[in-house]
Amino acid sequence: MPPGPYLPARPFRPHRRRRPRPRPRPRREDPMRSALALLATLAVLLTAAATPSRAPGPQADPVRTPAAPVYTVRLTGDSAGTGWHGHESVRFTNASAEPLREVYLRLWDNAHGGCPASPITVHGLTGGTPDAPSVGCTALRVALPSPLGRGASGVIGFDLGIRVPSGADRFGHDGRYSFLGNALPVLAVRDAAGWHLDPYTDNGESFYSQAADFAVTLDHPSDLLVPATGSSHDTPGSAGRTVTTAVASKVRDFAWAAGPFAKISATSHAGVRVSVYSAAGVGPSDARSMLELATSAIDAHARRFGAYPYGELAAVLDDDFWFSGMEYPGFVLDRVSTSALVHELAHQWWYGIVGDDEYNDPWLDEAFSDYATDLALGRLGEGCWNAVSWTSADERLTGSMRYWDAHPTRYGTVVYDYGKCALHDLRRLIGDTAMAALLRDYARDHWYGVSTTAEFKSAARAAAGTDLTGFWELHRIDG
Asked: How many CB atoms lie within 10 A of CB 98?
């Protein structure tokens, strides 16, 4: 997501204050068997592009756990699309040698209201014992009935309620248009550093999750269009209602919107089906211009970083957003802005396909997406590092959101501007061809996995064929 509107001279971007598996357990898994059957039935909806052109890296990380989540969700929306209720279940596997005694659900959108008035509610949980919510009601610990050893699977299920607050936000409604980013509870990650239970940030993103499969059924009024992550199929529901079923494979989150959008679609030269959904106030010519931009940009990014694997993409436009854009897998929220849209589409690779810990390493998706935006728009970043001016010894390109939330006016300048300039400088240092190969190969090696600063530095060192210690020190890239 691009930095917020307070940032100087930024043509775009985000937020306000401010962006071998064992067989399932016998009986507990029955709901998931039906979920898997649904996935199989709807697999025809997934295009041949659902697999990258390069061989992906290992899908079960030996440290990060729970792994290989499979989410099955059925929700019914009210007449306005601002209230949803139903059921969610998730199957997961312990990929770590350390037993898994608990899992955590991240209820991220409870940051919009807090504990007294949580917009995301979980009731009737099965498959474990929930504690009281913590971290401002954005984290829910679930103790498992018995520890899961490496390779063992578990499943939890719960009734889910969602109440969308007022506001043109990544989670909010702008009149008749509702936006549901981060509304579905997802599993937190435990890695070598332990459980990641970082707080929500409105300046950027806190989200850190494993690639997962989703099968989501949304029952809604027929006069509301429901763009969503994944490949969607509509069937008639009860009188005046439509059932939209969306299936997505190897994505880190699931988002949707609901409203009387105007919709136009086109297919890129590489075969990606792109749809633009416009709220009131976005004119047909702007919508058409953004559609043409999206189809060209998605292909441009794919040529550099690997084929877009999801087949479809929805761009939802509303010029009332206080931010410039926000990314989700196969689904972006945007104002009418060239730079913002190209940036959000770059996030399909840098955060989506190549994951990262967005709270502790925001530069790994924001700087990389801004650099990709420059390349797609023919900007070479000449001389951009010359304007760098650090405000303190503590200011680092690799600072976490904890630091940037305390210094919000520097977030966009450092993470976005200095970050992309550092990558432009690296390109000039090692050469265009070597830099292109570095990023293409790095994406391949971390396809559906997680990137760290240390891993990128190691890959860059190998591509350069020389020591880069001075480069990292100059650009304040730690790790």
From this structure: 12
